[in-house]
Amino acid sequence: MVEYRIDRHSGVATYVQIVQQTKQALRMGLLEPGDRLPTAREVVEATAINPNTVLKAYRELEREGLVEARRGLGTFVRRSLGTATADTALRAELEAWAGKAREAGLDRDDVAALFTAVLDQHFTAGAGADTGAGADTGADTDDTHIDTHLDTHLQGDPS
Fold this sequence. Notes:
Elements: H1 14-27, H2 40-47, H3 51-63, E1 67-70, E2 74-77, H4 89-103, H5 108-123, H6 139-156
Antiparallel strand pairs: 1-2
Helix pairs in contact: 1-3, 2-3
């Protein structure tokens, strides 16, 4: 079962955080079709947020066709998202890279900004055309590219 963590200082609406965390759990295979989401009461007890906020998030997920409410039973996952799983080789590589970034002195916001910049470069319209099925993803090149960004960032930041 998913455990929601609410960051009250993120600037992201609480219900949106619940939606995002649910989608992440679906993408990672932590939630699968048929799984029950925590009840609004359980989420409220764990996070101290308003029950209507939880219900708003669940309605949004239902509107997107990801979950379905079953009266008297709870809210259940209808379908999963993506194919990423919690134990893929790519995740291990990303964890190693994140460890290197942390050792190099980057904080979470630095890493998020760097990672987002690389994602934008590879996943915006017209970019990353070689990412189709059967294409060489250039993982070695991407690792070098990320390391180059990391090195460049560190050289420009004396702290």
